[in-house]
Every structure is written in structure tokens, then in C-alpha cells.
Amino acid sequence: xxxxxxxxxxxxxxxxxxxxxxxxxxxxxxxxxxxxxxxxxxxxxxxxxxxxxxxxxxxxxxxxxxxxxxxxxxxxxxxxxxxxxxxxxxxxxxxxxxxxxxxxxxxxxxxxxxxxxxxxxxxxxxxxxxxxxxxxxxxxxxxxxxxxxxxxxxxxxxxxxxxxxxxxxxxxxxxxxxxxxxxxxxxxxxxxxxxxxxxxxxxxxxxxxxxxxxxxxxxxxxxxxxxxxxxxxxxxxxxxxxxxxxxxxxxxxxxxxxxxxxxxxxxxxxxxxxxxxxxxxxxxxxxxxxxxxxxxxxxxxxxxxxxxxxxxxxxxxxxxxxxxxxxxxxxxxxxxxxxxxxxxxxxxxxxxxxxxxxxxxxxxxxxxxxxxxxxxxxxxx
Length: 381
Ligand code: OGA
Ligand code: MN
Fold this sequence. Notes:
By secondary structure, this protein is of the alpha+beta class. The chain is 22% helix and 18% strand.
């Protein structure tokens, strides 16, 4: 662990918050040398290989959602964190552009809900992509006075829409979950030993280079026996994985474009945070469409579609300075229903635990800035 981070641990006092601040610091920049990089690492005392189940997903099924054969995936765990699985970019070459295009062009569309809906009429937020592409393609960002809607997008919710104020999901606030994203999720969770996963809620986070996500646990889902799945696209990030207590010192790791994380079993309810976005190292923004041979290699029955040059021009410019994170959650156990009275399923202590934020200095929970009343213009520092 880096020097300052180590001293915070020794003091035993709110080590997570200190390490969050350490990695978020701009000047002087922190020492990143102890941050685990699963794309380069070999198993060690701390890093253990994880055996997946190649029989759970056929090669054809995997390729239909843009994934390599499961036997090719490089999956790791962390000693002391059973149930935590890090899969180092299992995507086929050329598949990430499709998923990124879905995240920028398709998933922000109605009936899905985004931060801009909180303070704009739906007539203005129903074509975020269409209203943004011209400026994004042709104007120099520095020369524009107003940010495009796409640049002001901070979050999108899918399926059971997460209510940022009450920190709950509800039966009445639900729209269909995207089928392509469910197929992707179901194959990854099956390979990790969780057959029958139902993608019921999704939260997409859109990070600029100065964004962060505060210390929190994802516990609003009613069934915690199902894994939580997380995808990274675009710029890299530091992810901090803590323990079951808010004060437990976290482990720092890098997430690069295409990486997938599964938090399951005892790791499902661990504290975590994203203190910093980092430039993707060379070769890690593995999104160049042209490098992977013709798009005609798409399988019959593939959920992937070719991404047009026009769309790709916008997506590739966007991710030069941004990161997109997609988290997929099963909210209910099979057959489970939401309780009748809303108050009976509000989680306790929610205000202390939710740390979603943007531009926040210390990752302190209870200071969440990403609420439904946020103005998108205030979330950047
Ligand atoms: C979340 C989350 C982490 C990330 O959305 O709950 O923890 O990698 N995201 O952005
Ligand atoms: Mn989370």
C-alpha cells in the first residue's frame, strides 16, 4: 500500500475515507504504484485465480453478446474477499464500441430515466443523442459556451428505477429492462456460478475526468444473494474495495475499459468507491473499431449491431475524457414482491451509506451530491 495510504491504515481511524482522499488528491499526485492492475498481474499472495464455469455459456452464446469464450477469460479474486470476481476485459475485439454506443445513444432514451429529467421537461430530454451529436462532432469543446446534453448526462436508470432520494426501488416505477444488456449479464453471471440471474435494475454512471463516486454499499436491492455486476468503458478508474464496515481499509485496483466486476456472496455488501478517473494507458482504450477485422464476423443471432462511422465518431470523442460504468442488479428473489407499504422496505441508515457524488472531496457518505434534485451543471468541479 502506498505510503500515505499505509499510515491511514495504521491509525485505524476511518481508513477508507483517508485512502479515498489520498487517491483523489491532485497535487501532489499520489503514488499509484501499489494499485492492483489485473491486466498485468500474476497470481500472488493477495491475488488468486478464479475458476469460472466454461460449460455454463457456449462459445456461440458468448460471441453473440460480444464476449470471448469463457475459457479465455482471465478472472481473479482477492484473498480475504470471497465472492469478489474481477474479469479482465472478456470482450471480443470490436464488441466494446457496440456496448458503448448503447450506453450513450440508446439507454439514455425514454422510457429510461436520467439526471436531466429531474429538472428538464421530457420534451427536452427525449433525444439527448440527437441534440448533442452535431456539436460533439463538429465543434471544438473548448470553444462552445454550453455543454451538450450528452456531456451533462450523469446517470441513467433502467428497469426498476432507483430513487436517489428514498434509496429504494418500487413496483410502480418500472420500465422494461434492455434485452441485450440482460443477455450480456446473464451469461457473465452464469459463468461465475450464478445461473438464472434476472437483470431487474441498472444504473449507468457517466464520469468526467474529475468525477468520483463516494463510499457506499449497494443494499437497496431486496435480495442480496444475487450478484451485482459492473462494467467499465472508456477511461480508467481507481476502484476501492473495502470491508463490511465503513472503516475497514480498502484495497485499490484499476479498472480499464472492458473490465467486469462481480460482487457476490460475502462480497456483495462490501463498501466501495471510485475516488479517481485516470487516463487509459496506451492500448487500454481498446475501442478502435477498425483493428479487429470486418464487422461481418457478427454471429447469427448476435445482439450486437454494427456501429456506424458517424456514431463511432461521437462515441470515440466522448470517451477520450469520460468513463461509463454500468451496474446491473437483481432486485427481487424469484417470485418475491415488493412489500405493500413503501416505508416498510426503506432501508435503515440509508443516509449514512449512500455515497454517490460527483466532484466531492473526501468520499464522505451522507454528503451525497447526486440526488434527484441535482442540477447537472453543478456536479462538475
Ligand atoms: C455503483 C458503483 C462503481 C464504478 O454504481 O454502485 O459502485 O465502477 N459503481 O463506477
Ligand atoms: Mn456501488
